[in-house]
């Protein structure tokens, strides 16, 4: 595959949900970025990317070849003079975030899906995105994995809230999450912003993700015409990167 840039999803692709990348993945990404640009796009916050990705990378990483797009591409960070700087962010207003939070929690209650045991914050303000996590942001992977494996619970919540959130995008992400952003913002939007921002045409990029099937949160990336590589998880992603380098 002869591409100038690779775009990677984070959760479920480079690492397990809300878990840091391992040492082998970090080394492979470092080597990949020696000759290519690498973008990370995820529904997670910048703080999550720092914890799960940036902090795990080797000291001699070529950071000027990495580009970070948290909250489904609604914000962009790049390295500048040794620090990560926010280049843009399409933020929601405080009033919007309060309204979205209220609608999500009301839908959860109406459907009888509120869990008695919660791990951390249930609704997270990510600036340009509001993320609902049914079991809380800090729920263990093994607990999250069995809560909604077929996405049926979250589809019910999304179907209930969507009519009340006209003008917004409601997407199912991760294992227990629903992401709400301004309208038209999804992984397809993110791919186009990556292309514009790093100056690489879409036909010279590839997108790597674990949820590229219809209904998956990576699926909208296909609408851009970008070459897509669907992986089953982090080990599959490692094999793909090894094939490139």
Number of strands: 11
Binned strand content: 15-25%
Q: H/E element string?
A: EHEHEEEHEEHHEEHEEH
> Structural class from helices and strands?
alpha/beta
> Percent of residues in helical segments?
25-40%
Output the number of helix runs.
7
On the 0 to 100 scale, the average pLDDT is 94
Low-confidence stretches: none
Radius of gyration: 17 Å
Distance between the termini: 10 Å
What about the largest sheet?
A: 7 strands, mixed
Q: Strand order of the main beta sheet, please?
A: 5-4-3-2-1-10-11
Net shape: globular
Would you give an account of this structure?
With 245 residues, this protein is α/β, with parallel strands linked by helices. 30% of the residues lie in helices and 22% in strands. It is built from 7 helices and 11 strands. The chain has helices at 23-32, 46-52, 94-110, 141-147, 152-161, 187-198, 234-244, and strands at residues 5-8, 37-41, 66-69, 75-80, 83-89, 123-125, 130-133, 168-173, 177-182, 205-209, 227-230. Strands 5-4-3-2-1-10-11 form a 7-stranded mixed sheet, with helices on one face. A 4-stranded antiparallel sheet has the order 6-7-9-8, with helices on one face. The chain is globular.
């Amino acid at each position: 595959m002869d591409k100038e840039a690779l775009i990677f999803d984070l959760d479920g692709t480079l690492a397990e949900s809300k878990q840091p990348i391992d040492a082998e993945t970090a080394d492979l990404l470092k080597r990949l970025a020696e000759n290519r640009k690498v973008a990370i796009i995820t529904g997670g916050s910048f703080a999550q990317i720092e914890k799960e990705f940036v902090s795990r990378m080797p000291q001699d990483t070529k950071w000027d070849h990495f580009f970070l797009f948290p909250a489904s591409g609604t914000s962009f960070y790049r390295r500048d003079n040794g620090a990560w700087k926010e280049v843009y962010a399409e933020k929601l207003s405080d009033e919007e975030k309060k309204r979205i939070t209220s609608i999500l929690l009301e839908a959860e209650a109406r459907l009888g899906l509120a869990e008695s045991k919660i791990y951390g914050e249930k609704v997270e303000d990510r600036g340009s995105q509001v993320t609902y996590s049914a079991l809380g942001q800090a729920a263990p992977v093994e607990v999250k994995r069995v809560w909604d494996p077929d996405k049926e619970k979250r589809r019910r919540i999304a179907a209930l809230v969507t009519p009340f959130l006209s003008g917004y995008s409601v997407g199912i992400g991760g294992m227990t999450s629903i992401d709400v952003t301004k309208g038209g913002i999804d992984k397809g939007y993110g791919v186009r912003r990556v292309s514009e921002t790093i100056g690489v045409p879409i036909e010279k990029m590839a997108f790597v993700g674990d949820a590229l099937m219809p209904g998956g949160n990576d699926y909208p990336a296909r609408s851009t015409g970008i070459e897509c590589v669907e992986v089953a998880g982090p080990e599959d992603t490692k094999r793909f990167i090894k094939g490139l380098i």
